[in-house]
Design goal:
four-stranded parallel sheet, coiled coil, alpha/beta, Rossmann fold, globular
């Protein structure tokens, strides 16, 4: 099947029904052994240094991996995506537009998804058949999530990895299903961990994935990965159709809608604190103000840039934050 690049999670059910293999450019970029080559390629082609590294990474991943066609999300994702799309079109890459409407009305979302169906010439019944198949596999991602926050057996990194990869199923639905089943079997056989602190990770998935092992060495465990979990559509099977499923997807809509799910998960997972990750030069960093004013839980905002490992300053801030959480937990015993 022909590959099509994604700049963020979109209704891939439509693309698969049309005979495409979706490829999440974010995943190509962040797991690369040399992620900086993608950033360097973008800067060589004129992207400014004072621009989010993710956008430059997406550009480099698209060009370097020979992606000839992409879905460009014009509304509901990074505000820099529009400029990225213009440059990719200049490079001869075919761009199909898609939007998550700011209105967040079911009617408008249905209209946008139907536009996408028309572009790729697929019928709703075909899309629903694919959705049913994908949601079967997504249930395995939900099981790994439960192995993390209920049984305390899966690590925060495993929770992150297996859910974030459901954005494109690693380009192989059946193969990824087998990988998930194997991982679940292995995780179930473990003993539960016994960390004192239960943490939530919110914000875009990190470039600095060593954050998971770092906090585990400080008697803490990430039991919630907000956006990664949304990429896995944990409530997808409850939706009547694809329109409801993407209506209930919190990532692209306003912060108030996102906060409703955050508050629910904080309570259900008994979180002690939250790490809010943002990228340098990204507008989403401003959302930290709104989030801290609406959530009654200690929150530490950390910022990533080009590095894919934590720097010394961020490590010190994390250590201090976790020390404070441990002291609070001891006081409240």
């Amino acid at each position: 099947m022909k590959k099509i690049g994604l700049t963020t999670t979109v209704p891939i059910e439509v693309l698969i029904a049309a005979g495409y293999t979706p490829v999440d450019l974010n995943n190509i970029f962040v797991v690369s052994d040399n992620h900086l080559k993608y950033i360097d390629l973008a800067e060589k082609d004129g992207f400014p240094k004072s621009l989010c590294a993710w956008i430059k990474g997406l550009y480099g991943a698209c060009i370097e991996n020979g992606i000839e066609e992409i879905i460009g999300v014009m509304e509901g994702d990074c505000s820099n995506t529009k400029a990225l799309i213009e440059v990719l079109q200049l490079k001869g890459i075919k761009v199909h537009p898609f939007s998550f409407p700011h209105s967040h009305s079911l009617e408008d979302i249905e209209r946008e998804i139907k536009k996408l169906m028309a572009i790729f010439n697929v019928e709703e019944a075909e899309v629903e058949a694919v959705r049913k198949r994908l949601n079967e596999v997504r249930l395995l991602g939900k099981e790994i999530d439960e192995l993390t926050y209920i049984q305390n057996k899966a690590t925060g990194f495993e929770n992150h990895l297996y859910q974030v990869s459901l954005s494109d199923f690693n380009g192989d639905i059946d193969g990824y299903e087998a990988d998930l089943r194997k991982a679940i079997e292995e995780i179930k056989a473990r003993k539960a961990t016994d960390k004192k602190l239960r943490l939530g990770y919110i914000g875009v998935p990190p470039m600095t994935t060593d954050i998971y092992s770092f906090v585990e060495n400080l008697n803490a465990h990430f039991v919630y990965n907000e956006v990664q979990r949304e990429f896995a559509f944990p409530r997808g099977n409850e939706a009547k159709n694809i329109y409801e499923q993407y209506y209930d997807y919190t990532y692209p809509y306003n912060t108030d809608f996102r906060l409703l799910e955050l508050k629910k998960q904080i309570k259900e997972r008994k979180l002690d604190g939250i790490i809010h990750y943002t990228q340098a030069f990204c507008y989403r960093a401003v959302e930290d103000i709104v989030i801290k004013n609406n959530l009654d839980i200690p929150i530490l905002n950390i910022e990533g840039d080009k590095l894919n490992t934590l720097d010394a300053r961020t490590k010190l801030r994390l250590e201090a934050f976790l020390d404070m959480l441990l002291d609070l937990k001891e006081e409240n015993r």
